[in-house]
């Protein structure tokens, strides 16, 4: 199964979080994603100005395991697998044959527990944020606050069991969990204000936030301050929180090894092209070898001509073979490794779509998503980005007592290169008000990029489509829908 979530990562990049979940009944799962990116012709993005290397430079991917799925109430149970695994790792510190291995396992289980907690907390809060009924929101939130208190108390009770040399890794995970707890609680407080719930309920939420802040001060974790003089300290703390997030999620990120796809085959066929060119040049020069002594100038000219034919023939054959190989191989292949063991690969390739080569179903989706009134106005350059993914399900099962569902490909598409030829982000236009007075108003000058994504899992004959519309100005992305 393929699942995709998108968001604006920063003002000039869009993030696509694609989950590739393998089947329990298959040893390997293979997926395909085909993406057509429609770019306005006014941006001057074409094969002459935007190469494959430019595109791959603008696309950044991080490959990681899908976080094991646990509800927050499960983490409040001392018999839950994440907590049991962590307790086992704590007990094994210094007692196994290899202290280094036991400490590595302890650090890993801490990071993984914090990552699971982050995911569970996010899911609970996102569920609460879509509730429209104030009474139901209050009921669900109170239950959430109880689960939250029990799960954090359970994790923090483990501190007493950890020897002093190993407290620092625990503190990193604990500080990260405390930070995201407060962040998510702020989101709940904002939602409760938007729903207009009673002051008594909001006081309960505020008490939970204050309880978390008191815990931070008690154990020595820094907190953000609204005071103007705390600007530099706040900046340092935000940077620390970012580092803690990377530290925790490093348990899930996989090693990757990227190289050109089909490189050995390409060199073989290029060698064939060079050999064929040499044969042609030899056939041109061979009949005249007996006249070398009598007509050296003529033979010299013939050899030059033979070399010219050889050089052009080689380049022609290289181009011919390259076009054939392009249809069979991708631009690059990324091997995915878990503990230095290959668990799959990702192949990627990008090309511009020639006129008239757009699939009919993709064209139909593009036209339905368009805001233009006339189809003749759809003068666009179209990038075709294709990706193939293979995941070995057997190598993901029962890893560290977890059955990982698959991998996440977190892809960020940076638009800086594409936006650099846009007009000024604000334009001034004139209009009349109801009294007939003329006014000049500032209006954003926006451009719209369309993306049609096709998802297909091997063994399924029915592809799934998603259409995204990215509205942006030269200053950055306005929205993605």
Provide a short characterization of the protein structure:
Helices cover 45% and strands 26% of the residues. It is of the alpha+beta class.
Share of residues in strands? 25-35%
Q: Report how far apart the termini are.
A: 22 Å
**Widest β-sheet, arrangement of strands:** 5-6-7-8-3-12-13-14
SSE run = EEEHEHHHHHHHEHHEEHEEHEEEEE
Radius of gyration: 30 Å
Task: Provide a descriptive summary of the structure in words.
This protein has 481 residues and is α+β, with helices and mostly antiparallel strands. It has twelve helices and 14 strands. It has an eight-stranded antiparallel sheet with strand order 5-6-7-8-3-12-13-14. Strands 1-2-9-4 form a four-stranded antiparallel sheet. A two-stranded antiparallel ribbon has the order 10-11. α9 packs antiparallel against α10 (296-328). The longest helix is centred in the middle third of the chain and has 33 residues, at 296-328.
